[in-house]
Amino acid sequence: MKTVIKQNWRQWTTILIFSLLILIPQLYQPGHLIFGVDGVFHYNRFYDAYMQIKEHNFQPFIMMYGFGQVGRYINVIYSPLLAYLAGGILFVVKSYYKLQLILNFSVLLAAGLSMYYMLAVGKLRRQVQLYGALSYMLSFPVIAWIFGQQFTGVGAAFLPLVGALAIRLVVDKTKPVIVVEMIAIMTLIIQTHVLSAVLAVILMVLAYAYSVITNPNQRLKTFGKIALSAVMTLILTVNIWGAYLFINVQDAILPPFPFAYRQQRLMNWNFQDKFTAPTILMLTALFMVLFWTYRKSVDKGSQYIGYLGVAFLLLASGLLPIDFLVKKIPAVAILQFPFRLAPIGIMLITYAGLKALEKGAMSQGIRMVWLIFVKLFILMGIFTVTNQFNILLNDWNKPKGAIPYYYTTLDERVNKPFAVQEAFASHDLSKPWSMMAKTVPDYLPKTSDADKLYQAIDQVPIVRKIEQYYLTNHDFNKAVRNKKIYITWKQKQAGTVNLPVVHYQGTQYVLDNKKVGTNEVKTGPVGTSQMQVSKGQHQVAVSYRVR
User: Fold this and answer.
1) What keywords appear on the UniProt entry (predicted)?
2) In terms of pTM, does the model score above 0.90?
């Protein structure tokens, strides 16, 4: 261990410093936040976990504090351990600004170290490993978390570890599988991000297929080790797949938010996209050119890795007919868009390009020229990313706080300038979530009306309906006490009421101190809890119990 540290500490320190360099714009602007397309969604999840920790109310299934206190499934099937980790950090720092800094730094550092490890498994020189790590930290899948809070970026930070497994399986003919390594990495990626785990499995299947064909002497032993790793990984991730299976057996729920025209959401190879210019365009293109030019100089296994990288990048750029495939194979919808494939392509082509740089049949002078280009593009990348970072942070000075209104509901009663900034700067960490929520149908009960709206090309109607029934109806007051959501309201006349809380099979109700039977509650519009009540003042205590 001491030898490893002695040999690599300079490169590790450089990766750490590089992570801080990217964050300099935010470090120099205290209190400034970036809330991209998914920011409200994920920070709401983290706030719910924070409140569970603060009040010792550990409810792993439904959200009692976040998302308008509507008691819906979110964290239980969306990286629950990371949500609790982020909630724990928020509990300690008591600041959304500090939380964002820590999370951004952690994602960048994880991306750099993961890529460094992958390239080390590929037996590249340590200095070349460093260049690959720095370039990957600037790639759009990682930066997508910093600029847009897209959780794909968190998964992308750890995907190179899976790349290391694939490279070992393809290139190493004597020890293609290390069981402990495979268990640890696959457990980490599944606990981190389910979609990234799906991509990881696809990559491992492709790597295993190559190993079976090209390494016949190790077939049986390799299969046995992979089988053992798979069983142990399943045991260690039962909280993810077990909860998912349980929920889908017990309740018919809507999958993550649908997107019409998925084919339009591609990896952009231009200078106009804030996530890709110029790093993804120049660095990734450079590695592709390097690999393609000198591919015959590298070993067959590395060639295969490079071809896979090119294939994934082409698919992410639009060659994958995802709209057609979703119609034929609905399960493909889990990918959502073609650009979700990009992290795999970028990390594989980075390895293949750098391998070609090391092994390519070229003069030392030409090799130095290629290396200068790599360094130059990394330098350009850091300037471009920090410049874009500054631009996005400056949006925080706008009266509305630069909160994107993509399916985000803001309380119409809060319309004064800079109300959003004041809410996020408040010591009361609940304040932002009393005025805004992410209006998405993910994991709501699959009612006939919700399913019909969900399938529509125009998703605005279902967003408006969720707002109407859950978020903008001010006739109901909510509070959390004694590990229950309490809803109070005044019923103007006897009849049906649609309570702004989600009705699942495990949801329990106590109406005016009297337990409500399961046959007395129906699933109302967009999953609300529907029951009959008399005229007057009422209180419902809502909890959840596994059946």
Assistant:
1) Membrane, Transmembrane, Transmembrane helix
2) yes
